[in-house]
Amino acid sequence: MPDKIIHKELSYRIVGCLFDVHNEVGPGVREECYQKAIELRLMHDGIPFVATPATRRELIYRGEVADVFEPDLLVAEHIVLELKHLPEGFAQANFTQLLSYLKCWNWQLGLLVNMAMDRCIVERLPFAPIEAIPEEDYSFIQELLRLEDRPLLREIREALLEIHRSIGLGYADTTYRNLVSIELRHRGCLCIGQPDVLPTFRERQLPSSRITPFVVDDRVCVQVEAIYDEVSARAVRTMQTHLKLTGCRIGLIVVFGKNRFLIRGVRMKEPDE
């Protein structure tokens, strides 16, 4: 059977260096201490690397900076290494962060390292670009569409499809929100990001709340999500709340997932639903 472990020899050498550092330094100090120790250990083993802040790279889209990425270490032009000191263990956001780095550099392997435990924890994260066919469902909003709504909805749809065509999947939702904002403005759409709304309870006003969707031309709410490969019930219910609060008639949830690209229309919740 062929060897399917990506960069097997190099990754084993790096992990050996990580274990040496953790064994000598132990848990409980700042991340910067581990990074300096790992740099010294890699140099001792003759493994080339680039360390932050020299790793900094900007994602440019339509001439604007959509996001900035700065991994801890780029090792031997093959492996992204991200250091953490997390006594509670890794969270999903840590894996998403590393996945974004791999996407930006178009490298196949990342190592997520936690130095906070009684032993060094190393998670391997492989990456391969996915070409996903767009999956679109507008059935829930079809009957709500007025003639004057269709050009705007078509423009938003084309903006989302263009980002998918030119950027693809693999980044976090914050990156895609920036990309969507840039693309919609490029197309001349009036786009308000993270608007403040005023929820109420039994006709009494509650404190203002900042919500995550874009409000486009005061008519369409666009929620951008990433990594997960489905439009969840939570996302739909949240969009219905945001439609009520913004006064928009139409909602769109777009998911730049790990393996799927989805667009779904959402209508406001009816009182008897």
Proportion of beta-strand residues? 25-35%
Judging from the principal axes of the Cα atoms, what is the shape? elongated
Helix and strand content put the structural class at alpha+beta
- The secondary-structure element order is HHEEEEEHEEEHHEEEEEEEHEE
Tell me the radius of gyration: 22 Å
Fraction of helical residues: 25-40%
Overall strand count = 17
Which spans have pLDDT < 50 for at least 5 consecutive residues?
A: none
Average predicted local confidence, pLDDT? 94
Summarize the structure.
The protein has 273 residues and is an alpha+beta fold. It has helices at 8-25, 31-44, 92-105, 150-167, 173-186, 233-246, and strands at residues 49-51, 57-61, 64-69, 73-75, 79-84, 109-114, 121-126, 135-137, 191-193, 196-197, 200-201, 204-205, 209-210, 214-216, 220-227, 250-257, 261-266.
